[in-house]
Amino acid sequence: MTSLFTPTRIGRTSLSNRLVMAPMTRSRADDATGVPSPLAATYYAQRASAGLILTEGTFPSAMGKGYVSTPGIHSDAQVSAWKQVTDAVHARGGRIFLQLMHTGRISHPSMLPGQVLPVAPSAIQPKGQSYTATGLQDFVTPRALETDEVAATVRDFGLATRRALEAGFDGVELHAASGYLPEQFLSSNTNQRSDAYGGSLPNRARFILEVLAAMVQEAGSDRVGIKISPEMGFNDIHDADPVQTYTYLVEQLAPLQLAYLHVAGSKSAVDYHALLRPLFSGAYLLGGGLTRDSAAQRIALGQADAAVFGSAFLANPDLPLRFLRGAALNTPKPALFYAPVAEGYADYPALPESTVALRIHCYGGAEMLQQDDVLAPTPAAGEVLVQVHAAGVNGLDWKIRDGLVRDVFQLPLPATLGLELAGVVLGVGPGVQGFVPGQRVMAALGGLGAYADQIAVAADKLATIPEGLDDVTAAAIPVAALTAWQALMEAGKLQAGETVLVHGAAGGVGSFAVQFAKRSGARVVATARGVNADYLRRLGADEVIDYQSTPFYEVTGNIDLVLDLVGGATLARSWELLSAKGRIISTAAPEIAGLVPAGKQGAWFAMRADAQQLADIAAQVAAGSLQLALAEVATLDQAAAAVERNKTGHAAGKTVIRLR
Questions:
Q1: Which residues are catalytic?
Q2: Among 258, 323, 373, 404, whose CB has the most other CB atoms within 10 angstroms?
Q3: Which of 264, 209, 256 is closest to 233 using CA atoms?
Q4: Which is nearest to 639 in space by CA: 275, 429, 388, 461?
């Protein structure tokens, strides 16, 4: 089932979870220049664990400003300050879009160049007041944009998009809600024009569509989103037929192929989410009054791809972790929402510096694994601190859990399981070169510990994840691929023309072994469940024996190399199949040395972590020359059951635990 903590994709941007931080005006920028406060980098970086951050509304041009101490994105100084923000967020593995907000008539001459009148589609004074540097003042009657000025305003949005990318943002969002300029053009009570931008619904929607087209031209459609909020009524905005208006608008978005549609909630009797989601093919972001449980339900039912939280993220910089642990939430401080101070901005406390790990406390069955809070690691010299996004399940997990290898792997309990991971760099220890915060990495650890939110890994074990591989796929590669290659080619010394028998070939190691053996020029015999026979033949197996119905030792022989991934009776019956030069390499039976019959060759094999070898293999998977199948993707709270299924048999391929 899809949950808040499964990954998703918004256009070209991969999100580690489905919790989105809403755009929220914070009024901490320099009022004279629109340059974000130096504290903004701290504020946004604190919340980088969000799947996606949407910034506070940012004016695309000087005429777009509508609130005191809000930021812009049209000057070099503004871009430079925003670059510090995006660098800080990316350094912590986050993703961040800039929201472009032109307030139109919801402004005041005191905030605009030369104290000119605000602009709007029509010269209609809104009800209400504006908070200015000298206090509340009535909204004024705006000046209606001339037709040729509309095109210039559209260009302002395109140029602001270009500057946002220069500042390092992953994308941009058009704020077309809350009664601001785009919605003023769209709505019947604020647009009384008689030119190509007014009158009919297609004309009233034209401004938004042209602005989006200008933004797409600069950023590409997969880095542009739009926010709407039908019938919110904020800033004296109304429409005569909002259902028709927003149905039409969303239908017209289709050719643009935007990254997402962000729909905020309202008190309307109409369920706009049910109305609009089926009309939009991209990612759907749902916001407005959500709780952890209601958001999870919406996503599980397919009603949204991600959930947008506002004040909860404001008051809880570590909101995803709090939701994951079921921890209490901080209380927002409304009196400080717009105060020009750090209090109520960058001082909300995070949970203590700890991390979540899946650990075994004693030997036994599935119930012996439990989630614990453990001390967050600090990278030592030569180490890299990695935030784990996904970890692969291996047979060693259940063998340790059941106590089958306690004499071989003597562990001080409790111990964190997991041998391989994919994630993002959080920090580096002294002497480490070649890795920087925010970099996506993968590793076979050569030891335990991958089922943890954070882990310190020796830098020489890490490889960069190639472009095109997601975290789950990357986590399925390291141990399986390295074990298969090293067992066959290094320990087994497989040669072209030899016959290799792979026991348990449908799993992660076995599927790579079949491909490596076939590419080396060997004849490949595989044992597996019959349901996986076609899969293994596609990988290159010359013969597949269904071990559930056919004793393998009765139908094959003259084997030069057996790769034993099963142990037990399978290993015991394999000795009789060997050719004169035959040998057995077992990854499943550390005790094999005491079981080798006279005149036979056999050895136990343990994988060696090799970053360069891993990088080479991962590149082949990314290029499609090596195939990889996933049997199951489970969340951390489902991990114990997934390990059990890995023990008892499962579909072809690898099981991966998704931590974020």
A1: 180
A2: 258
A3: 264
A4: 388
Q: Which residues are CB-neighbours of 280 under 8 A, at least 6 positions away? A: 250, 253, 254, 261
Rounded Cα distance between 19 and 319, Å, is 9
What digits encode the pLDDT tens for the residues 100-142?
Answer: 999 999 999 999 999 999 999 999 999 999 989 888 999 999 9
Per the listing, tokens 């497989």 go with: 494
Q: Are 443 and 426 in contact (CB under 8 A)?
A: no
Cα 622–Cα 438–Cα 84 angle in degrees, nearest 5:
135
Q: Which residues pair with 383 in a beta bridge?
A: 458
CA distance 72 to 57: 9
| Other residues' Cβ atoms within 10 Å of the Cβ of residue 202 | 11
Say which DSSP state 59 is in. Answer: B
* Alpha-helical runs (H) found in 417-507: 471-475, 478-485
Given a contact cutoff of 8 angstroms between Cβ atoms, the answer to whether 467 and 493 are in contact is no
Are 295 and 4 spatial neighbours (Cβ–Cβ below 8 Å)? yes
Compute the residue count for the chain.
660
User: What pTM was estimated for this model as a whole?
Assistant: 0.64
| Cα–Cα distance for residue pair 221/244, rounded to 1 Å | 25
Nearest to 504 by CA among 555, 565, 552: 565
**Paired sense of beta strands 654-658 and 383-392, if any:** antiparallel
At residue 4, the 3 state secondary structure works out as: coil
So what's the pLDDT on residue 1?
39
Q: Partners of 307 in the beta sheet?
A: 19, 286
Burial class (CB in 10 A: 0-12, 13-18, 19+), 15: buried
Residue numbers of the chain with a pLDDT score lower than 70: 1-2, 353-354, 649-650
CA distance 144 to 121: 5
Q: What is the pLDDT of residue 104?
A: 97
DSSP 534-595: HHHHHHT-SEEEETTTS-HHHH---EEEEEESS-HHHHHHHGGGEEEEEEEEESS-GGGGGT
Residue among 210, 34, 55, 33 nearest 121 (CA): 210
Residues whose CB is less than 8 angstroms from the CB of residue 352 and which lie 6 or more positions away in sequence, other chains included: none
Alpha carbon 330 to its chain's center: 25
Q: Which two tokens stand for residue 231?
A: 């019938």
Separation of alpha carbons 212 and 224, rounded Å: 8
Do residues 418 and 397 touch, judged by C-beta distance below 8 A?
A: yes
First to last CA, the chain: 15
Q: 631: which DSSP letter?
A: E
**What's the confidence (pLDDT) of residue 404?**
81
Q: What letter represents residue 575's amino acid? A: W
- Note whether 101 and 95 are within 8 A (CB): no
Three-state secondary structure of 482-500: HHHHHHHHHHCCCCCCCEE
Distance, in Å, from the CA atom of 223 to the CA atom of 100, rounded to the nearest integer, reads: 13
Nearest to 66 by CA among 74, 58, 76, 78: 58
* CA separation for the pair 239, 66 (Å, rounded): 22
Q: Enumerate residues 6+ apart whose C-beta is below 8 A from 590.
A: 405, 408, 604
Rounded-to-integer distance, Cα 387 and Cα 425, Å: 6
- Say how far apart CA 463 and CA 479 lie, in whole Å: 13
- Give 230-261 as a DSSP string: TT--TTS---S-HHHHHHHHHHHTGGG--SEE
Q: In whole angstroms, give the CA distance from residue 283 to residue 261.
A: 6
pLDDT for the residue 651: 74
- Do residues 272 and 284 lie in contact, with contact meaning Cβ atoms separated by under 8 Å? no
